[in-house]
Amino acid sequence: MEKIEDDKGHEMPVYYSLGNFVNATSGSGKGVMNRMVGGMAEITIEPVKKGNGYNIDAEIKPVICHLTEDEATAYFLEDYTEELAGDNIIRRQDPDFSLKNCRELVRRVWGNV
């Protein structure tokens, strides 16, 4: 996610690759855990009291894809627990998967969201 300006100085949010935050990957090895971390757009649009404009607040909410034998589910990072991370079967494909490493990846990609 980034914010860009048009030629008139209007700032707008741009989100990239939002469509794949629930997935099951067939890969294995170092780095596969990165595929389990994604983001969901969070956008608030409020009309300006005077005028025809809008205030737009755009953020990203990190999500973790949790895999079990039967399903793939997305959890917001803030709701994901150590217990869930320990049960995520992606650990079979990448032993580096952990809640701590997911949080670190989010910090590296988006900073403090």
Please characterize this protein's 3D structure:
This protein is 16% helix and 34% strand. It is an alpha+beta fold. The chain has one domain (2-110).
Descriptive keywords:
113 residues, two-stranded antiparallel ribbon, 2 helices
In short:
This protein is an alpha+beta fold and 113 residues long. It has 2 helices and 5 strands. Strand 3 and strand 4 (54-67) form a beta hairpin.
Largest beta sheet: what is the strand line-up? 3-4-5
State mean pLDDT (0 to 100 scale): 88
Label the overall shape.
elongated
Q: Give the helix level as a range of percent.
A: 10-25%
Identify the quaternary structure here: single chain
SSE pattern: EEEEEHH
Number of self-contained structural domains:
1
> Given the structure, what is the number of helices?
2
The proportion of strand residues reads: 25-35%
How does the helix and strand content classify structurally?
Answer: alpha+beta
Task: Please specify the SSE layout and strand pairing.
Layout: E1 2-5, E2 11-14, E3 37-47, E4 54-67, E5 72-76, H1 82-87, H2 99-110
Antiparallel strand pairs: 1-2, 3-4, 4-5
